[in-house]
Design a protein that fits this description.
The protein is mostly helical. It is built from 15 helices and no strands. It has one domain (2-310).
Amino acid sequence: MVKNNNSQFLSAFYVSLAASLWAFDGIIFRPFLYNLPVPLVVFIETSIVTILLLPVIFKYKSTLRGLELKDWLSFLGVALLGGAIGTMAITKALFYVDFINLSIVVFIQKLQPVFAITLAAILLKERLTMSFIIWSSNAIIGAYIVAFGFSLPLIGTGDKTLEASLFALLAAFSFGSSTVFSKRALKNVSFELGTYLRFSITAIIMLIVVLLTASYQSVDIISESQILVFFLIAFSTGGPAILIYYYGLKKLKASVATICELMFPLTAVILEYFFHGKILSPIQWIGAILMIISILKVSGINFYSFSKQNH
């Protein structure tokens, strides 16, 4: 029992650590790349990680040969939604660093569990309860308050809050959908191989996007400092963060992992204050608290029962 509790604690720690690293990515690293086309940014970072993880192929080549069509389709869903669309959307939202408080983006992106559970109900035929509908609605209301307070969004004022919020919402949907596909994708593979397939398939998808959008033409404007940022992302918040996250996720319930992932917005708010001097207003904090409580409820967390189980 003690060994099992220690394993659960370490798994929760790894998921929390990964979520904190993603906050560093969004608040510290990614804004440095704001002048580059989003598809090019995602293609470069995923390609670097893919190359770094190449040894994984040789370690798990027998597993790779044994994968079925359903496995490949699951990884395609993960790569398309989580690796490509979700990453491009959150990157675009975070590029509005000069216009908005980035904490708004990360809080809205944490609507991910709402979308994940909804999609699971649609694809896996899980029944949605009235409690879920009520609390997911509260989460959406909380997200609106975080972004706009108690006012209507203003369009055409130069304020990019609306655009950033919509991209963050798209990212939340994409990452939430990716979580559902990941459950199937990781069924027959290790967390290392799962990480490699996620990045390698994403790199292929992004190569196609880069060619179609002609984003490759901006390669010559990449500065030396931005090259350093790409490698910092690859060696910290990119491949390693996903590796640690998948390692912890394989040994944790999704509902517990959701709590751990709240380290993402928490860390982001702290970093946003220390590095950019920005913090949420009292009204926005009301929305953030409503959102967090609602997400915990949506995830089916009961603090009393959770506490009893761990004792």
